[in-house]
# Entry
Amino acid sequence: MRTVQYDRESVKEYAKKWAYLRNPQYYNYDKLGGDCTNFVSQCLLAGAHQMNYEIDGWYYKNANQKSPSWTGVEFLFQFLIKNKSVGPFGKIAKIEELQIGDIVQLSFGEDHYGHSLLVVEKDQNEIYVATHTLDSYGRKLSSYQYEKNRMLHIEGVRKW
# Structure
């Protein structure tokens, strides 16, 4: 197994193209609880070029054949921070560590995190994100009202 670089520019390009549209290759989960993590997973794939088909992996074949981590906020978080096999992997990060292609997850007062966003730009004072469900591209993270956030920095991608 080898570790390769995560293609952050491809992630950003994918997010820009599909933030306000739906890629017909993927099911739209808007009416089934939201499409945010599905969109973030698609973006991750654009930069990782590698799925993980293990039982607790990260993959999408079709609407009914996908891993929980492809569409589930908590499952994606757990996959990325625990993945020791193929596919993208990451770590919990501070806001200063975030880069284009990293992930922010929000909690709106529930006991769990319920929204995934993709970092598409960053300057000294602000993080800009893209997401589905409340479709946006280049929206300021500070414009969201949330109780807690957690940030994930994608460290790389493992391939065979």
Observations:
- The mean pLDDT is 97.
